[in-house]
Design brief:
Elements: E1 3-8, H1 16-29, E2 34-39, H2 41-44, H3 51-67, E3 75-79, H4 85-94, H5 99-103, H6 106-112, H7 120-134, E4 140-142, H8 148-165, E5 173-175, H9 210-219, H10 236-249, H11 253-259, H12 264-293, H13 296-322
Helix pairs in contact: 3-12, 4-7, 4-13, 7-8, 9-12, 10-12
The structure holds adenosine-5'-triphosphate and L-tryptophanamide.
Adenosine-5'-triphosphate (ATP) binds at residues 8-9, 11-12, 15, 17-18, 20-22, 143-144, 146-147, 181-183, 192-196.
Length: 327
Amino acid sequence: MKKVLSGIQPSGQLTLGNYIGAMQNFVKLQNDHECYFMVVDLHAITVPQDPAALREQSEAVATLYVAAGIDPAKANIFMQSHVRGHAELGWLLTTLSYMGELERMTQFKDKSAGKESIGTGLFVYPALMAADILIYNADLVPVGDDQKQHLELTRDLAGRFNSRYGDYFTVPEPYIPKIGARVMSLDDASKKMSKSNPNPGSFIALLDPPDVVRKKISRATTDSGREVKFDPADKPEVSNLLSIYSHCAGLSIEQIEAKYEGQGYGAFKKDLAEVVVSVLEPLQQRYREIRESGEIHNILRQGAERAAAVADQTVRDVKERMGFLLP
Ligand code: ATP
Ligand code: LTN
């Protein structure tokens, strides 16, 4: 069975962008792949996090994985920090990476732009992400479009290791959805929807109550004109809402355009809000049930145990190949 790995940072409330771009594919792939889905807490601390908020968000992300349909009987769900090998292999791969290639990472450039002091962790972060993937020899990595460049670096590091120390790592492939790989911000269609955006009106959180969803969608910026038409170059905002609609309702873009022909944005946005609410409400119901049951802690313990068995072996093999004296 092919192996799949992915992770989401507990750096805020999960958004519809995370769901459409990544989590829906996690659910899809779990049936016929050996899956590892992590909450990447070691990545989240590359920017400052309040300790209490980090702990709460970590439990919330893990619970949302299960609420969204990831089945702990099929996939390993765990916290990155519970499997020590990630940090250890992260360091080993950091020593194989070059300043120049890390400086080119757009996520680093975006997150460090305008900051007076830039954390070193933010800079070396892609080597840790490479370790996350390579430690399980993952074949496929379901992510949104913004992670393509990090995947490319992971492939380069795997190739570099293999040519220096002999073939060992699988060179992974990204797995990116055709529609919804880049859900844009509701207030600015030139930026991706992001959970760490300080303006909560810019994103729909998976745990937003229905009335908040309705309000956010009714206030979402729309292009001038009134025609509901998919045209990312000339109508980026309406096109973004159309992609969200298409994903949540399971209709093609053409079907939605036909449905709203001659009707203007008002009716379209009103229906879109209901379509989104109908996806989120059952997920929120399951979220509350799992949170109340406390079962997530057992799920995370079992997931980490199974993951660590694989990860520890990889770290041992890698250290042996690199010339470490083993204990
Ligand atoms: P942050 O704002 O803290 O950087 P984020 O919202 O970008 O967070 P991540 O934890 O970095 O979320 O990403 C988790 C997964 O969700 C990744 O696979 C990423 O590609 C995907 N993803 C994030 N935002 C979007 C988006 N707007 N559209 C599609 N996929 C997305
Ligand atoms: N860098 C990713 C999160 C992430 C990840 C991973 C994704 C960390 N490790 C391994 C896929 C595989 C992000 O910022 N979205």
